[in-house]
Specification:
149 residues, globular, 4 helices, 18% strand, single chain, 3 strands, alpha+beta
């Protein structure tokens, strides 16, 4: 049985690694890509250093169509504008999946469902982090109390 290799290129317009969300992002990505074998994940700073470029090298039993690649990239939180451009480019050329070096436009970010999900994910992460630090403080207080007795 032949395995087809594919590279998913994700343009994240925010620094997940700064907020401690990189491990959670990889976990979510594994869930999205559970049907495929992940060969390698590469994380690089974008040229503007405001976001990340993430490469997922995957293999599958069937060759992925251009639309399937674009859908997977969008599910992995690829930039919405890049997704729209790639959909249009994929109709005319096979080498549609490229990163852009310069910003095409700089409007204020519209509120989207994807942004709401990200906000929720980061709020949950922050809550878990605070909960863990609270547990650590409580356990250290208990240890101190035991030492005093």
């Amino acid at each position: 049985m032949k395995n087809y290799r594919c590279c998913l290129k994700i343009d994240l317009d925010f620094r997940l690694d700064k907020f401690g969300g990189w491990e959670l992002y990889k976990e979510i990505a594994r869930g999205v890509l559970k049907k495929y074998k992940i060969i390698k994940i590469i994380k690089l700073l974008s040229p503007g250093k405001k976001g990340l470029h993430v490469y997922f090298h995957i293999s599958s039993e069937k060759k992925l169509s251009n639309k399937q690649v674009i859908r997977l990239q969008y599910l992995l939180l690829d930039d919405l504008t890049r997704t729209k451009i790639n959909l249009n480019r994929s109709k005319f050329i096979d080498d549609f999946n490229v990163f852009f070096d310069k910003v095409l436009y700089n409007k204020k970010r519209k509120k989207t469902f994807k942004n709401d999900i990200l906000k929720y994910v980061f709020e949950v992460m922050e809550f878990r982090r605070k909960k863990e630090s609270f547990k650590n403080v409580c356990s250290s207080i208990e240890l101190n109390n035991k030492k005093r007795k």
